Amino acid sequence: MKKIILKVISCLFCIVLLFCLTSCNGGKPTISTAFAHYDGIYPKFEWTNLEGREGWSAKVVIKDLKGETVLEESGITQNTYTVKANLNAGQEYKVFVYFKNPQGAESLFGGINDDGIRVIYNKPQGKYYFDGGISLDTLNNYLNRSMHYAGLDPEPEKYEVVEESIIGTGVKYVQRAAGSWHPSAWDETGGNLAGIVERLHAIDPEIIFEACIFECITTAVEDIAIPKEVFEAFGLPYENRNFDFEKMVFPSGYGLGQWGENSGIPDITQLETQMFFYHRARFYIDSGFEALHLGQAKTIGRKDKNNECWTKVIGMIRDYANENARRHYVIIDAHYPGQKFLDTNGNSLVDFNAFPSRIKVAEGQNDHAPTEENPQECVIVPGHKDSVYKLGIKGTSPGGWYTNKFPYLVEIDNYGVDKEKNQNKASKDIWGYDEITWFAIQPQWYRHEFTEYLIKEIDSFGENGHMSVVGRRWITPVDASNGSDCYYAAGGIGVNYYGDLEFYRDMWDRLGK
After folding, report:
1. What is the spatial distance between Cα 110 and Cα 19, in angstroms, rounded to a whole number?
2. Which of 132, 300, 419, 434 is a plausible cystine mate for 328, CB 3.0–4.6 Å?
3. Across 119-123, 156-160, 474-478, which has the greatest mean pLDDT?
4. Poorest-confidence range of 36-40, 186-190, 463-467?
5. What pLDDT band is residue 62 in, cutting at 50, 70 and 90?
């Protein structure tokens, strides 16, 4: 049978199946052509004159060349059907389209024989397309529409807020969508991460969700079982046991109690820590996440000579992603201040650097509390503290492309507040608050003005720099926040809802993001 190759037509893959359901008599629908549109990741099949025809329905079956059924969907009564399964780029498939008449008789679409129609699925090379690797341009496209959303709420009543924030705003990169600061077994069993991600991907399959494996662990890791596959990946015999906190922290005691009682900083040179990071990465990749944030990687690797252990673990994670991730690649980032995070061959271990915005009080400001008329003005300045701006970092990415302006993504960070507040020289350097608490207590018009200023200012640096807008983030409750302890950009009733989403959407469109 002659193969039908899918070709790009204005960033839309379209193949016309040149067959007809020939009989138009006896009340049967006239279905003159059928189409398979490949838009984004999923194909969309179309036909004419089926919808509204009582008793008629369609069935789509896709098989690989071994005869294994990849997808089968029946009872379709609309004129369109979108495939809900991932297809592999460059792979050949057999497509079958059946129609059932009101008497229940089912037959192949006219002209299709028992061997089906052979097609090769070539995914579109669009603005957000990647598979097996990601280009710098595509990565920039994603980071241009980044939102910091600290944990996808597992509560069913919060799903509408999640969908409104991400889908309704046109977000393409969801930063910090999962990953507990104090990792526990509940993270893997108590929520419905995979279900939430799958539900959102059904609406927009191009979105990238990022999960986090931070520089903080507690003794709660000892409730997490180590899967057999993790032992096998490290060439170790299987042991029926959980992770061991004592085997993960620095033998010297460095970092013990850093994050509170029974806490510590994981040491990447310890085999137990390597297994933990690998296990968590597998879990998130299997749950539909396509990006990982590795926290303060320099702190975790302070004893890692030439990043040898990081090179090993990240390499294992990437190998797993190449086989198992949705688009056969995982984007990895980390906090790595002021320098490159390199593997043992001198190439970057991360696809981009993630860092706080490092906001500072604007010149000429006097001490004052924020009011509607008089916000506490701030700016960003290259060279302030350990900010990431205009560092001129060059290098080769994990995907193989080279740039003399390595990409970065800044966020409105949280880390606590001072006792003395509303002072322009406070030790936190932004009026005595961390970035997100300062941001939350400003009048809405200034929050919007500052967000757009930050994006435009970063653009003016002429780098591959980006800002992640605030979607959801924990703040420190202070008098000025009226009891709010979490910043939701969505609108709603209550002190935690700040109503920024329409502004974000309009701003991105206006700035051509």
Report:
1. 6
2. 132
3. 474-478
4. 36-40
5. confident
Nearest Cα to 126, choosing from 205, 32, 68, 201?
205
Question: How far apart, in whole angstroms, are the C-alpha atoms of residue 414 and residue 325?
Answer: 30
Residue 54 and residue 275: Cα distance in Å, rounded?
Answer: 57
Q: Mean per-residue pLDDT for 67-93?
A: 78
% the chain with pLDDT above 70: 85
The answer to whether the beta carbons of residues 380 and 357 sit under 8 Å apart is yes
Average pLDDT across the chain, whole number:
86
Q: Are strands 146-149 and 173-178 parallel, antiparallel or unpaired?
A: parallel
Report d(CA 294, CA 180) in Å as an integer: 12
Give the tokens for residue 160: 């509408």
Average pLDDT over residues 125-137: 88
Buried b (16+ CB within 10 A) or exposed e, 333-351: bbbbbeebbbbeeebbbbb
Q: What is the DSSP letter of 383?
A: T
Stated pTM of the model: 0.78
Question: How many whole angstroms separate alpha carbon 201 and alpha carbon 162?
Answer: 13
Token pair of 64 as six digits: 């690989």
Average of per-residue pLDDT across 438-459: 97
**In 3D, which of 510, 506, 513, 409 has the Cα closest to residue 169?**
506
Per mean pLDDT, which range of 18-32, 278-292, 336-350 is the poorest? 18-32
Q: Which two structure tokens, joined as six digits, stand for 249?
A: 């922290």
Radius of gyration over alpha carbons of the chain, in Å?
Answer: 26
Kind plus residue range of the DSSP H or E element containing 292: strand 291-296
Burial class (CB in 10 A: 0-12, 13-18, 19+), 69: exposed
Task: Answer for the pair 469, 489: CB distance below 8 angstroms, yes or no.
Answer: yes
Pairwise CA distance, residues 378 & 450, whole Å? 8
Print burial letters for 360-388: b (CB count within 10 Å at least 16), e (below 16).
bbeeebeeeebeeeebbbbebeeeeeebb
- Please state, in angstroms and rounded to a whole number, the distance separating the CA atoms of residues 414 and 437: 7
For residue 484, pLDDT over 90 is answered with no
- Write out the two tokens for 282: 């597998």
Q: How many residues does the chain have?
A: 513
Q: Is the dihedral of CA 404, 406, 412, 416 positive or negative?
A: negative
CA pair distance 275, 40, nearest whole angstrom: 35
Among residues 318, 325, 290, which one has the least CA distance to residue 175? Answer: 290
Structure tokens at 140: 């920039």
- Average pLDDT on 80-85 reads 70
User: 461: pLDDT confidence band, cut at 50, 70 and 90?
Assistant: very high
Average pLDDT over residues 266-285: 98
Q: Which tokens belong to 272?
A: 């137990």
Contact status, residue 217 vs residue 172, Cβ threshold 8 Å: no
Q: How far apart are the first and last CA of the chain?
A: 45
Query: How many whole angstroms from its chain centre is CA 292?
Result: 8
